[in-house]
Amino acid sequence: MRLTGITSTAAVAACFMAAPLPSYAQQNGEWKWMIAPYLWAASVRTDLTTPFPVSEGGTRFPDLIDDIDGAFQAHVEGQNDRFGMFADFTYIGLGDNKDFERLNTDSQLDAYLFEAAAVWSPGEDWLKGIELFGGLRYIDVDLSVNFDPHDPRFGSLELNPNDSYSDLMLGARYTWAFAERWRLTLRGDGSFGDTDGTWNASIVGQYQVSYGQWLFGYRYLSVEVEDQRRKIDLTMSGPMVGFGFVF
């Protein structure tokens, strides 16, 4: 991962929940903020397609990586009346060994997702009902795959491409306040540009307390990137839990 790329991009973007602030956060038109770290117990599927054979007929490797080494998520959001903004950062570390029909693979994948968006609340009730958002999604992919063919006529091969992708992101979320302290937020968004398409969906429950809110729910994320060297399909889904500190 290139540190200069992270630094410059993090200045304008940071990825999965865009959860809203508590209803008491907005007072007299001032801006209020929330910082929320997350744990995401996600199941993973990573498919790789190469443009050239590494063994007889071997160019597509489904489910190449399905063991997660580590994941980190952080969410920052500010709101004021009908407008707001949020930023997300997600790090995903994956590693796995696979035994295919004609070869073995040893793979490592580090993926960094940054998101930044402006939020508009068209309804009369603040942080209730529908909200629309748009912004930037940035993805950095660092993939390393060692191919070890079973047939000794074929030598070992290593692929180690590092690429970054910038997309325009558009989405919406809907918040339902069904009790005094309870809310439920549905979010869906997509992004297009350098990637072939990235899709994100989540359902998040919020329980409000005096100093913030507990957050828990379920998230689905699908990323598809392709260039002349390879095509990667990364899908993650699973439950998540976190706490939002409001100030």
Automatic annotation (TrEMBL):
<keyword id="KW-0732">Signal</keyword>
<protein>
    <recommendedName>
        <fullName>Outer membrane protein beta-barrel domain-containing protein</fullName>
    </recommendedName>
</protein>
<feature type="signal peptide">
    <location>
        <begin position="1"/>
        <end position="25"/>
    </location>
</feature>
